Amino acid sequence: MSKWVPCKRRDLIRRLKKLGFTDPVPGAKHEFMRYGRYKQTISNNPCYDVNELRMLIEQIEEKLGRKISADEWNKL
To answer: Which domain holds residue 50?
Structure first.
């Protein structure tokens, strides 16, 4: 069983695109990515620690309507 590990911003964007999100679009302060009618804000951090990543994953899970395991995330 995998564990959550820090993630670089470019890897986060690549993985979200594999899940069906659009390319990042500039916003007022942050970029965002769309999934259907939902918007996911992406902060400009160069790297996300485990706590930040888990918080983002929880938001993404709500939009997808399913859970994402650490194994699935690490394989994306």
So the answer is: 7-75
Q: Which two tokens stand for residue 55?
A: 């918080």
The string of DSSP codes covering 51-71 is HHHHHHHHHHHHHHTS---HH
Query: Residue 18: which pLDDT band, with cuts at 50, 70 and 90?
Result: very high
Residue 2 domain-assigned? Answer: no
Contact criterion met (CB below 8 Å) for 50 and 61: no
Q: What's the CA gap between 67 and 76, in Å, rounded?
A: 14
Cβ(62)–Cβ(40) under 8 Å? no
**42 lies in some domain:** yes
